[in-house]
Amino acid sequence: MVARLKRLLPALVALISAGMAPEAGAAIEVTDVAGRTITLEEPARRIVLGEGRFLAALGILDRERPLSRVVGMLNEFKRLDLAGYASFARRFPEIDDVPVFGQTSEASVSVEKIIALAPDVAVFGVRGHGPGKRSDHVIRVMEAAGVAIVFVDFRIDPLVNTPASIEVLGRVLGREQQAAAFVAFYRAQLEKVAKGLSDFSGERPTVLLEALVGLREECCFTMADGMMGRFVDFAGGHNIAKDVVPGIAGDLNLEYVLSTQPDFYIGTAIGSAAGAEKKPERIILGADVDAETARASLRRALARRGIETLDAAKPGRAFAIWHHFYNSPLNVYAVQAMAKWLHPERFPDLDPDATLKTLFRRFQPYPLSGTYAIGLE
CA distances (Å), 346 to each of 111, 200, 216, 350, 376, in order? Predict the structure, then answer.
């Protein structure tokens, strides 16, 4: 009997292994950044993106085929960052064939179109241009149709939720290894800033963070407790908006700005090389923008009425950053750039440009081109 069992042992092992095969495809349980637990039978195969700019996150997880599972998305990527969209399209022209179910706002979203695309997972931002965690009707209708909803966040609490969001998406897509590689790099780069400021006990330099420069004539729309406002905090600055603007973003009165006389000016750039002639009042940064074009646009922005009288409107104290870092998993570059601007003596060896090059080389599906931050000098 024992001899017979020994002869049967290899076959029994094979049967047991075969019986365990479904374990490899066992249910995936994920808790997203909104604290919701989602259970999937397998990694997502058909996904829709509540914002097209989430493609940067998919590029981190699947550099060769970031669009392979995308069956629909919001159209804000093309509408708000045409140069970035064009960079993506040069390598992946099939992006133009991805169905869109809305333009640049939640109000434009057609839930019926989303459901007709038959996704198994929808990736939504906690808050942003598309549906968010407060979109009760959208959530209810989609879940009733069998679509799992996963929330990510690169916008509200970006420095905490960027690595968490990539880990969530890595689980959802079955790309945990790629997610882990990015998160390790991201945290190491953020730690360089934290370490450089760990023993800083002096007075933080004050910063005017003017957002969407040139979108309207008057000054100054800003970000306070959220989005890039968090970057200023982490980089060792004091954002003057936090003293008077409640919540995430709002307006600063020009008279208040002039009376405060911040130590530094940082404007966010929504202009592009293609739109430079039509929108010369905007700061120009991003894909395909050369440094001199970017610097010239910053000079024009600083020459506006009132702004030109700021003590910070001078070389070494006035800078600009690409606006879309406010909603990008590559935001650690912006944090490093700000830290280098605000505390150059503490970061002699910090090289934000090298960080950005590495982010694109290792974690994006197309090569880096253009200028994403600039100063007057």
Answer: 50, 9, 36, 9, 21
Rounded Cα gap, residues 258 and 248, in angstroms: 22
Which DSSP helix (H) or strand (E) runs through 266? Answer: strand 264-269
Tell me how far apart the alpha carbons of residues 126 and 152 are, in angstroms, rounded to a whole number.
Answer: 6
Span between the terminal Cα atoms of the chain, in Å: 87
Q: Which two tokens stand for residue 20?
A: 């365990």
Instruction: Decide if 27-174 and 201-375 have a common fold.
Output: yes
Domain boundaries, the chain: 27-174, 201-375
Which CATH architecture best describes the domain 27-174? 3-Layer(aba) Sandwich (3.40)
0.70 surpassed by pTM: yes
Tracing tokens 């493609």 back to the chain, one arrives at 55
What six digits make up the tokens of 70? Answer: 């995308």
**Highest CATH level, class, for 201-375:** alpha beta
Distance CA(285)–CA(297), nearest Å, equals 9
pLDDT digits (tens, 9 = 90+) for 160-176: 999 999 999 999 999 99
- Residue 89's Cβ-side half-sphere holds a number of Cα atoms within 13 Å equal to 13
| CA 19 to chain CA mean position, Å | 42
Among 94, 95, 91, which residue's Cα sits nearest to residue 53? Answer: 95
* Confidence check: pLDDT of 18 > 60: no
Answer for the pair 32, 175: CB distance below 8 angstroms, yes or no: no
Greatest alpha-carbon span in the chain:
97
